[in-house]
């Protein structure tokens, strides 16, 4: 009897030792803006506990343009070391060939997502990636300063400009800036530029049917207005700011207004922030005779075709994109859910009020023209952000630059987008 | 190498010559064989890591290759370089790298950057080398300290300078403003008129030590007695520099310049990190990378890489001709 017990204990011991050996090690690669990596780490901890698998995180720089170049290289080389890629919302058509079709695996989850977001990840019927979080920018403003001068948060860009000028004048603080945004030549400026143009009623650069519409009077007016901000309410340096540089200026209390994604909300409210409890957010202002427009952003998780453990990787993706995981991220770092029901969750509303307010903004957000321009989107985007950046920098007028952009895009399109 | 058969008995002249020739040819054959044996691994490695990619890149530049499907590339001739698209009705347009203003802008940026930065680095490097060549206490320490910028990886120094040049928090603006040179902060990397200057400043900071080191090596080859003689003759030190030092270290400087120029013409990392996507500083390599990996234009990027190779090869050949550099080992 005694020997039997011993036998059992031994067997159990062997089972314990051999247990982890059958578990899989997965890797996930992601950019690192704000708390992105901490978010993933938290999600993964829960996953590891539940499954016994281990997940390695590979960190990338925060510019999505840089990430894309690296991912494309890895995927083209059929690199099996990365199982799960965190992909930008605009990448689906360009990388679709390298990812596993998630349609079947995600039958039950896909339907819970906001339709426009899940649609953005479908390429010719193939579900390329599952949405992890959505992004739609906000106008951050200094509540204390606006209240001091009896101002309401601006409804139009012109109001924003006027308010910023007034406050700057009255405060007389040379370290204070009126408005910071993402003006560096990179994907983020395509978002900012698209918002200015679309909010003036100037279209979406390339319309869903593939027609190039950027060269119009409203787009010219939008870019002219934005160019007028540089050196007056926005610092010269904004032409090299990405998200984190803008947040750096804002969070040290050196800006009255900031255009940024909701991730900055949680961080601006954190312990060492100089603007803690002194700010609030509203949707972006509208242009002359237009409606506010927010650029649809966000990240998705895709499974590499070259993964050694595709099934486990799909499970990991489902786990990290589930309603529970999205709720957790919304509470931790104000990441906007892509699953509608999470917005109504009382715990989320209490922890991050911005999330609850943002459902409409996300649902009505303007998509970048990644679907109509297909594999040529990156070049379209580069041509657009270059034109916008040059206009902001005062190299050529808005009319000239948009006319040239129009010509470039037409040359790029030639027979049709492919 | 002369082959003298030691201990050979004195014989008829013709016989000696014949035998010497036979010995020489046998020996030289043997030497030739071992030379090839030693060289073969190196040639193989070079062909594999340098030759093959080069050939492959040139091949891709004549195809319609896409990074998603490299195996399925079709030959398309010169289309990536130049192509006339006829729209009918006598209307048409040229496409291709040779008529791409972005490419020529990148070529101009690169040549401009290389010319200015290498010139400044050469002059500064020469000054540093002259100082370091003088005898003073703690010279070893100074020599080591001067090398630090060169030892830091470019990515790190570029990022470091990007923060130092930041318009809001940057120490560079702070220092220049407290001395009174600037009245308000400059956004060094963002401002189109200063972006290239910023890149050149960082490059000069980083690479001057390298130039100084190479020129210093040349300086140390100059025999000291020449200076002694000049001193005894009472020649002014400035004249000694122009008439003695400079001519003697000229070969060292010319070699150093070509090393740097080759490096500068293929600049990528510094520009990619310090001023990403900026039209004012985009170099040929950045242009190629962008087309190869960012856009779906692998073959176009390959064409850019091929032209980059040709441009550098041409500039190098012209330089070698102009500077009358000799690599044949002739004295």
Structure description:
The complex is a heterodimer of chains A (418) and B (331). In chain A, strand 4 (122-123) and strand 5 form a beta hairpin. In chain A, 49% of the residues lie in helices and 13% in strands. In chain A, the strands form three sheets. Chain A has a five-stranded mixed beta sheet. A four-stranded mixed beta sheet of chain A has the order 8-9-7-10, sandwiched between helices. In chain A, strands 4-5 form a two-stranded antiparallel ribbon. Chain A folds into two domains: 2-128 and 297-363, D-Maltodextrin-Binding Protein, domain 2; 138-295 and 368-413, Periplasmic binding protein-like II (D-Maltodextrin-Binding Protein, domain 2, 3-Layer(aba) Sandwich), CATH 3.40.190. Chain A contains 21 helices and eleven strands. Chain B folds into two domains: 1-58; 102-323, MetI-like (MetI-like fold). Chain B is 67% helix and 3% strand. Chain B has helices at 13-60, 101-133, 139-146, 148-151, 154-164, 171-179, 192-219, 224-232, 237-265, 269-274, 284-294, 298-323, and strands at 83-88, 91-95. A two-stranded antiparallel sheet of chain B has the order 1-2. The chains are: A alpha/beta (418), B mainly alpha (331). The A-B interface holds A 63, 65-66, 68-69, 72-73, 76, 94, 97-98, 174, 183-186, 235-241, 245, 248-249, 254, 375-376, 378-379, 382, 385-386, 389-390, 393-395, 411, 414 and B 66-68, 70, 85, 93, 95, 166-169, 184-187, 189-192, 275-279, 289-290, 293-297.
Low-confidence stretches of chain B: 1-8
CATH superfamily of the largest domain in chain B: MetI-like
Helix content of chain B: 55-70%
Q: List the domain count of chain A as a whole number.
A: 2
State the separation between the terminal residues of chain A, measured CA to CA: 75 Å
CATH architecture descriptor name of the largest domain in chain B: Orthogonal Bundle
* Tally of individual helices of chain B: 12
Helix content of chain A: 40-55%
Strand order of the largest sheet of chain A: 2-1-3-11-6
- Which two chains form the greatest contact, residue counts included? A-B, 41 and 31 residues
CATH level-4 homologous superfamily of the largest domain in chain A:
Periplasmic binding protein-like II
Instruction: Give me the CATH fold name of the largest domain in chain A.
Output: D-Maltodextrin-Binding Protein, domain 2
* Outline type of chain A: globular
**Quantity of strands of chain B, as a count:** 2
Radius of gyration of chain B: 27 Å
CATH class value of the largest domain in chain A:
Alpha Beta
Helical/strand content category of chain B: mainly alpha
């Amino acid at each position: 009897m005694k020997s039997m017990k011993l036998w059992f204990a031994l067997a159990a011991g062997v089972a314990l030792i051999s247990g982890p050996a059958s578990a899989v090690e997965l890797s996930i690669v992601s950019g690192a803006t704000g708390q992105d990596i901490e978010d993933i780490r938290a999600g993964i901890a829960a996953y590891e506990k539940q499954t016994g698998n281990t997940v390695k995180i590979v960190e990338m720089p925060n510019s999505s343009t840089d990430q894309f170049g690296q991912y494309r290289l890895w995927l083209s080389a059929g690199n099996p070391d990365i199982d799960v890629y965190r992909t930008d919302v605009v990448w689906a058509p360009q990388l679709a060939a390298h990812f596993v079709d998630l349609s079947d695996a995600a039958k039950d989850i896909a339907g819970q997502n906001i339709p426009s977001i899940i649609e953005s990840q479908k390429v010719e019927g193939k579900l390329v990636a599952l949405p992890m979080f959505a992004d739609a920018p906000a106008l951050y403003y200094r509540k204390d300063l606006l209240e001091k001068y009896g101002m309401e948060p601006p409804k139009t860009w012109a109001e924003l400009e006027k308010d910023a000028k007034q406050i700057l004048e009255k405060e007389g603080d040379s370290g204070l800036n009126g408005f910071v945004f993402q003006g560096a030549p990179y994907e983020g400026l395509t978002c900012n530029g698209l918002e200015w143009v679309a909010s003036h009623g100037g279209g979406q650069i390339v319309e869903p049917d593939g027609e190039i519409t950027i060269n119009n009077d409203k787009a010219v007016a939008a870019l002219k207005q934005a160019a007028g901000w540089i050196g007056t309410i926005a610092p010269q340096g904004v032409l090299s700011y990405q998200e984190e540089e803008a947040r750096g200026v804002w969070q040290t209390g050196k800006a009255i207004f900031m255009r940024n994604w909701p991730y900055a909300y949680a961080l601006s409210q954190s312990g060492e922030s100089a603007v803690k409890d002194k700010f609030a957010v509203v949707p972006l202002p509208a242009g002359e005779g237009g409606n506010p427009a927010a650029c649809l952003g966000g990240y998705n998780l895709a499974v590499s075709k070259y993964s050694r453990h595709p099934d486990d990787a799909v499970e990991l993706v489902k786990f990290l994109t589930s309603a529970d995981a999205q709720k957790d991220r919304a509470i931790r770092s104000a990441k906007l859910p892509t699953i509608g029901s999470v917005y109504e969750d009382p715990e989320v509303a209490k922890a991050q009020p911005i999330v609850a307010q943002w459902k409409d903004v996300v649902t009505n957000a303007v998509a970048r023209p990644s679907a109509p321009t297909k594999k040529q989107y990156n070049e379209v985007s580069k041509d657009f952000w270059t034109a916008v950046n040059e206009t902001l920098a005062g190299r050529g007028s808005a009319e000239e630059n948009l006319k040239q952009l129009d010509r470039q895009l037409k040359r790029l399109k030639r027979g049709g987008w492919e | 190498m002369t082959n003298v058969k030691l201990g050979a008995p004195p014989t008829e002249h013709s016989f000696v010559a014949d035998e010497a020739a036979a010995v020489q040819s046998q020996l030289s054959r043997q030497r030739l064989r071992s030379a090839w044996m030693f060289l073969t691994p190196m040639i193989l490695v070079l062909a594999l890591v340098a030759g093959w990619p080069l050939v492959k890149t040139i091949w891709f530049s004549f195809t319609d290759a896409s990074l998603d499907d490299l195996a399925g590339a079709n030959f398309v001739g010169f289309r990536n370089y130049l192509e006339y698209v006829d729209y009918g009705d006598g209307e048409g347009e040229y496409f291709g790298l040779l008529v791409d203003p972005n490419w020529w802008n990148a070529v101009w940026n690169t040549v401009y950057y290389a010319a200015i930065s290498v010139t400044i680095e050469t002059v500064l490097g020469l000054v540093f080398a002259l100082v370091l060549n003088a005898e003073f206490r703690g010279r070893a320490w100074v020599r080591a300290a001067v090398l630090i910028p060169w030892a830091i990886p470019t990515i790190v120094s570029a990022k470091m300078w990007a923060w130092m040049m930041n318009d809001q928090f940057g120490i560079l603006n702070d220092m220049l403003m407290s001395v009174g040179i600037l009245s308000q902060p400059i956004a060094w990397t963002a401002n189109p008129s200063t972006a290239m200057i910023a890149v050149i400043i960082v490059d000069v900071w980083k690479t001057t030590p390298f130039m100084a080191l190479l020129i210093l090596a040349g300086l140390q080859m100059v025999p000291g007695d020449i200076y002694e003689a000049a001193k005894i003759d009472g020649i002014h030190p400035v004249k000694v520099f122009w008439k003695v030092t400079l001519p003697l270290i000229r070969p060292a400087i010319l070699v150093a310049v070509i090393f740097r120029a080759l490096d500068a013409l293929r600049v990528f990392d510094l520009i990619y990190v310090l001023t990403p996507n900026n039209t004012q500083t985009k170099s040929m390599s950045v242009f190629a990378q962008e087309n190869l990996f960012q856009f779906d234009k692998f073959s176009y990027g390959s064409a850019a890489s091929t032209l980059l190779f040709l441009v550098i090869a041409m500039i190098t050949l012209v330089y070698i001709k102009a500077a009358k550099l000799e690599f044949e080992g002739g004295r």
